[in-house]
Amino acid sequence: MCRKGIATKAMGISDVIIDQLEHDIEEQLSGVDNTGQLEQFRILYLGRKGQFAQLFSELQSLPGDERRKYGARLNVLFQRTQEKFDGYKSRFDKAKPGITATAVDITLPGQSFPRGFPHPLMLVLRQVVEIFGNVGFRVAGGPEIETEYYNFDALNIGPEHPARHSQDTFYLASPSRLLLRTHTSPVQIRFMEAHRPPLAVIIPGRCYRRDAIDAAHSPMFYQVEGLMVGENISLAYLKGIIEYFAKQMFGSTALRFRPSYFPFTEPSVEVDIRCTICGGKGCSVCKQSGWLEVLGAGLVHPALFHRVQYPENITGFAFGMGLERIAMLAYGIDDMRLFYENDVRFLEQFR
To answer: Going along the chain, which residue ranges are E strands?
Structure first.
């Protein structure tokens, strides 16, 4: 703690007084341990009524030579003392546990943070799950890193098929030829291996293909697979389920079923919906056709049932659709890249 300074007024100004002042300053600064003691030191020596102020005021009564001599010494000592004081103050401020640049002022009113909200793709996925759940479909899932067997072989996709080439599929650097699944269809095999009929499941998840990025394609996309297996399941069941889904998802809109080919279904169909972006007039999304393909489907190929050892009287249908395409149709969005650009102005429209 700082002690009382020397009695300068009684003794006047001399080299002895200035030497003693310098000694006292060094001694008392060495004993300063906190900001309170430092403030006492400032008042005693550097304040308006402190030791330096008294000595500077007495300089006026000295002869010219002595005023210059002692004034110069006092100025040097004053500057040195001020610098030491500033150094102590800076050190104490850094160590102070009070309010700093990163501290929280608990006296301020609380801040409200905006609540998050689902991504539009997740909103559509929830709706799809609910629609199919209303007619008895449960949700199933599987790995995104697949083997060639489940992704291709078990689905009747032979070694010569172009989808198996590296320019179409993401393969991992592994001797076992693992890959990022190109569709959710492998889960059909995995689920049928673990369950006996009858069954009805939808399988949502991410898929990966070496596609160019444009208004209708992306290297990563979401797909929803559907599978219903039991006795006497026919194309009529498939048509009824798809029409029910389209009515619930899009309201009143036109559908068309076209013959097609998929290795894992026989017979196979493509299902198109009248483009909701242009109303069937033709646009860049529907490639000026007025129709948009929303899913591929068909009766499950008997070879798949043979691989999972199902009885011969078992039949079923499967379908697969891109979730982004469904969301684009449901919300009238003409570019699927908007879903992945993370533009808050776009996403907040679905809050």
So the answer is: 138-139, 145-146, 179-180, 199-208, 220-231, 255-262, 265-274, 291-300, 314-322
- For 117-163, the pLDDT digits (tens) are 899 999 999 999 999 999 999 999 999 999 999 999 999 998 888 88
- Mean pLDDT score across all residues of the chain: 87
- Cα-based distances in Å from 111 to 50, 107, 351: 46, 12, 21
Q: What is the DSSP letter of 74?
A: H
CA atoms within 13 A on the CB side of 326: 29
**CB contact at 8 A, 53 and 13:** no
* H or E stretch at 219: none
Report pTM. 0.65
d(CA 118, CA 350): 8
Distance CA 290, CA 181 (A): 31
Which SS3 state, helix, strand or coil, does residue 307 take? helix
